[in-house]
Amino acid sequence: MEVAPDLSAVSALALQVDLLQLPPEIPAPGAPALRGVLDHLFAHWLSLPDTVALVSCLAQKAKANGAGFAGGAMLPSMMMQGGANVPPLSPRSPRLSRKPSGVGGHSNRCASPLRPATARAVKEVIPQFYFRDGRPLPYEQKRQCISIVEQLFAGHSNGLRIQEFRMVTRELCKLPSFFTTVLFGKIDKDNTEFVSRDAFMDFWVNSNMMTMDSATQVFTILKQPDHDYLTKEDFKPVLRDLLDNHPGLEFLKSTPEFQERYAETVVYRIFYCLNRIGNGLLSLRELKRGNLLDSLRHADDEEDINKVLRYFSYEHFYVIYCKFWELDTDHDFFIDKENLIKYGNHALTYRIVDRIFSEVPRKFTSKIPGKMCYEDFVHFILSEEDKSSEPSQDYWFKCIDLDGNGILTHIELQYFFEEQLHRMECMAQEPVLFEDILCQLVDMIGPEDDTFFTIKDFRRCKLSGHFFNVLFNLNKFMAFESRDPFLIRQCVKSHP
Q1: Residues 383, 392: contact at Cβ < 8 Å?
Q2: If 0-12 CB within 10 Å is exposed, 13-18 middle and 19+ buried, where does residue 33 land?
Q3: What are the residues whose beta carbons fall under 8 Å from the beta carbon of 250, sequence distance 6 or more?
Q4: Considering only 188-197, 312-321, 436-445, 486-495, which range has the smallest mean pLDDT?
Q5: Among the listed residues 167, 136, 389, 362, the one whose alpha carbon sits nearest the alpha carbon of residue 273
Q6: pLDDT tens-digit readout, 310-336
Q7: Confidence of residue 106 (pLDDT cuts 50, 70, 90)
Q8: Is 389 exposed, middle or buried (0-12, 13-18, 19+ CB in 10 A)?
Q9: Which DSSP symbol is given to 409?
């Protein structure tokens, strides 16, 4: 039996710190004698006792195993051994720290080859998450859609006419029926008065319109091809279709002038609520943030248009238009400062009317100095009649903010209340001191800082309308003051 070599000397092999110190005669890197120095260091390493023992062990193992011996695998394995008090130079790899099992379960360090230093990285396939034209329709949903399209277009080899296409708009596209005209025109670009099955499939299915949310669908259908916004003109086909087909507006067909004014008013109301920037260009983000789509569906389902209070109520339009007609005494479709001061039986103060005609809250679209057109009046009356809405709060906050610094100080409030106090005295009403009014306003709004008010303070309070009425609308101010205090407290509690 072959006697195993004594590896006690090898097992005692450890990294000596003093061996890491280079001889003092080593030249700087790049010197001509650098190669000679390296040879000297290698010869010095070979002469060390530990190295001699290692080489002897390797030679004996090579003789015992023949040509199949991998000497390169021996050196790292033995260099890992050392004294228990000597730490390794770096963390051990999990592959090196495992002990391979030999015959009978004994470890055989010298004979165990190392695993490859690097393994082929497994490439993780990341599914596509961005689609320039929208996410494709799932196969099953697309198959169902094609089946419905085949049923709707069955028997119409040339395609569907616009009245026949209304069913497609409502049942398949899930859009209000009065989008039929504009959707039909988007598909029938050549004005053939027909929409074929293939043309509809290309526009609605193959272009991934079905996978878009409702707001994006409406935005894409209404906007012009080279625009990324909606203008007031883009809504005209929808309002035209609504006027022609809604049963609640059938009585207007004999009065085209009122039809036109109604459509204008609806569009102005939409932009008043949604286009908060006020630039007349409605973005997709603004459309998504609003409630227009719900109102469109409500108008499509409700036969009584007056029950659709948002945007489409004919009664609301009639009140707005009649108010404007009463103030426009010469009927040139413009009103000036003297006309507006008569609004609500002279309810507004001169100072607030001056601020409105200074175009502080909103630039007039009339383009005539000192003249307010119908669109400007719609914005005014919507702000006046519902001061709790955010567009109204912005409108009146800008009017009161004399220096435009974004806060309302006590001095600014007193400036507007002075005229209110004077009017109360002229009407033989018991005057209310500004100090008392100020305390009431602070208690009503509850600002973060009692010394001034910000627009955020009004956002948190539903009684902001009374705040502004105190400052410039005498009729509504007196009506609020004459209310039962118990009802006022109940209102405050219900609108924290």
Answers
A1: yes
A2: exposed
A3: none
A4: 486-495
A5: 389
A6: 999 999 999 999 999 999 999 999 999
A7: very low
A8: middle
A9: E
Helices 350-357 and 390-400, packing angle to 10 deg: 100
What single-letter amino acid sits at 390? E
Structure tokens given for 29: 């890197």
Phi-psi region of 406 (alpha: psi -120 to 50; beta: other; left: phi over 0): left
Residue with tokens 């090898």: 10
CA nearest to 108, candidates 66, 68, 78: 78
Token pair in block for residue 290: 């609003």
Residues 29, 35, 39, 42: what is their CA dihedral angle, to the nearest 10 degrees?
40
Q: What is the pLDDT of residue 232?
A: 96
Among residues 173, 183, 180, 170, the alpha carbon closest in space to that of 210 is found at 173
Query: What stretches of 358-447 show up as alpha helix (H) in DSSP?
Result: 374-385, 390-400, 410-426, 434-445
Question: Which CATH architecture best describes the domain 132-212?
Answer: Orthogonal Bundle (1.10)
* Residues in CB range of 279: below 8 A, 6 or more apart: none
Fold matches, 132-212 and 328-494: yes
d(CA 379, CA 269): 8
Residues 6 or more apart whose CB falls under 8 angstroms from that of 164 comprise: 156
pLDDT at position 9 is 45
pLDDT tens per residue, range 218-258: 999 999 999 999 999 999 999 999 999 999 999 999 999 99
Contact 312, 266 (CB under 8 A): yes
Per DSSP, what are the bridge partners of residue 282? 230
Cα distances (angstroms) measured from residue 267 to each of 60, 85, 310, 326: 97, 85, 11, 22
Q: Which two tokens stand for residue 436?
A: 């008392």
Q: Which amino acid makes up residue 203? A: F
In this prediction, residue 382 has a pLDDT band, given cuts at 50, 70 and 90, of very high
pLDDT tens for residues 267-276? Answer: 999 999 999 9
> CA 66, CA 369: separation in Å to the nearest integer?
107
- The CATH classification of domain 328-494, taken from the options 3.30.565.10, 1.10.238.10, 1.20.1050.10, 2.30.42.10: 1.10.238.10
The domains of the chain are located at 1-69, 132-212, 328-494
Residue 269: count other Cβ atoms within 10 Å of its Cβ. 21
Query: From CA 222, how far away is CA 206, in angstroms rounded?
Result: 19
